[in-house]
Design brief:
heterodimer, A: 157 residues, 7 helices, 5 strands, 13% strand, B: 442 residues, alpha/beta, 4-stranded parallel sheet, 19 helices, 12 strands, globular, binds flavin mononucleotide, binds iron/sulfur cluster, binds FE2/S2 (inorganic) cluster
Amino acid sequence: MLTPESLKRIDREIAKYPPDQKQSAVMAALAIAQEERGWLSNEAIEFVAGYLGMAPIAAYEVATFYGMYDLKPVGKYKVSVCTNLPCMLTGGVDAGEYLKKKLGIGYNETTPDGLITLKESECMGACGDAPVMIVNNRRMCSWMNPEEIDKLLAELK
Amino acid sequence: MAILGAINPMLTVGLDGDRAWRLADYLTRGGYRALRRVLEGKMPQGEVINEVKKSVLRGRGGAGFPTGLKWSFMPRSFPGDKYVVCNSDEGEPGTFKDRDILRFNPHSVIEGMIIAGYAMGAGRGYNYIHGEIWEIYERFEEALDEARAAGFLGTNILGSGFDFDLFAHHGYGAYICGEETALLESIEGKKGQPRFKPPFPASFGLYGKPTTINNTETFASIPYIINLGGEAYLEAGKPNNGGTKLFSVSGHVNRPGNYEIPLGTPFATLLEMAGGMRGGRKLKGCIPGGSSAPVVPAAMMMDCTMDYDSISKAGSMLGSGAVIVMDETTCMVKALERLSYFYYEESCGQCTPCREGTNWLYKVVHRIENGKGRPDDLDLLASVTTNIMGRTICALGDAASMPVQSFIKHFRDEFAYHIENRKCLVPVDVQRAGSGFFTATV
Ligand SMILES: Cc1cc2nc3c(=O)[nH]c(=O)nc-3n(C[C@H](O)[C@H](O)[C@H](O)COP(=O)(O)O)c2cc1C
Ligand code: SF4
Ligand code: FES
């Protein structure tokens, strides 16, 4: 189900924990699976559970508990905007509204061409750089004024 | 560089340049000298803990608990595995200091954790890193590789016979995992739901073994304490508030960012370092310790010094050192609404008072903000908070309640105006101008 590269990365995670605690690698393994496949299907979650020797339901519980896992397909790019108070004071909410208008979608929606999914997020621990957003859970973008947002959107093709 | 200023700094000295985080750079700054002193000088474990006690280093993660005392709770003669765990799950709104410590000075955290492991007889450590700061997580893993290759991690460190290894674990978007027992559950590969206490982690922690959890900045301070000596570290701050601390200043200031200052520095000085109020507007209120800390009105805040005792006298908490600055363009109802939504979203749902109570708090503040408030809503909010506080497994319930109580206490007129007139006291276009999004960014 996953590529040999992904499995190698998961093995590296497993090695971080005591031999009888493979389940500790489940968060990393799910993140790796999502990175490879774009989102976490039930099959992907079950595969990870099997690989780590844990009950599928236990892996499913983890996948549903943590906000950065996507249990439904998302666009090619997922853009998460922080709108929590410290960011709001420096334009976090406005940045979200600006994106909505530009993309013609609301939060938790995907553009009709399947390119971009927009998400509202909680504090990313980067409030000094507000407005901030994260692309595909990996790339943090700081000081996102209208100009910077335009640049980012032009880049996400 | 987001560390924008400092007075008599320790943690942030010499961090200019792209390579400050590298081992070679850390070594030229005197890095791993404290570890050498402890291991090569065969410093007894108790003496290390004593030095930390003397420093009166108080935990930088939020509660301000004395670190040396916490370390002394670890059982000395426990036969099996013991763990030290670093809490880098920085998710408390307003807080972004641990990210910069890990970004520019990761080896100070690694060195602090090795010394902690030695002092408490733990052979293994984990650093739990907020999932949102992925580049920092990857960098930390690289720093670990450097430390391992140089013989600071692994077996027989510096020929001392002491073995210690350290690994990074990432979160994936759950604020509650910052709570220390939820964090342990999360490392174990489970939902991040806080545990009942007691037993405390020092007796039943990670995988059921004795465990000590400290914040990133707490561990990062350890090498400086060993190098300077506990007393000198204490004197760098003020009595009962040892050392310097990083403050994350966000909101309506000209230069949001991190500032390292001695504990006891006046708030006015910090505000000035952060470039003063944006657009020269007036301070309205400040949340001095992260979103869970009670808000303090402007006049009281201007009289505070930045340390645990002074902020607590003002009725709030120094918390994580996240200073959220709000000027007169802020609608206090809207501000509280956003915070209440956050706690409602992030409640793990285990305890009924928290799960139901945070839902109520958000619903009621939301309807006030949206012009549908009812005359007795402020009393209702007060009674919901008293039904949450002290009745939950972890402190999130209190954290959700304290903003509600303090916002209403200090800005009651504004809430009452909202309910009566069904609109903001601060006009919406004024609020929008305050954020600066559509004008030049500062
Ligand atoms: C809901 C909640 C969230 C927390 N988030 C964090 C956090 O992000 N980082 C942190 O260091 N401590 C956090 N804490 C505090 C930890 O439980 C713990 O007290 C701290 O990590 C201990 O380290 P210290 O003594 O060095 O401060 C949180 C507590 C609660 C109740
Ligand atoms: S207080 Fe809230 S967050 Fe904490 S354990 Fe209870 S339900 Fe979960
Ligand atoms: S509030 Fe947006 S990153 Fe902290």
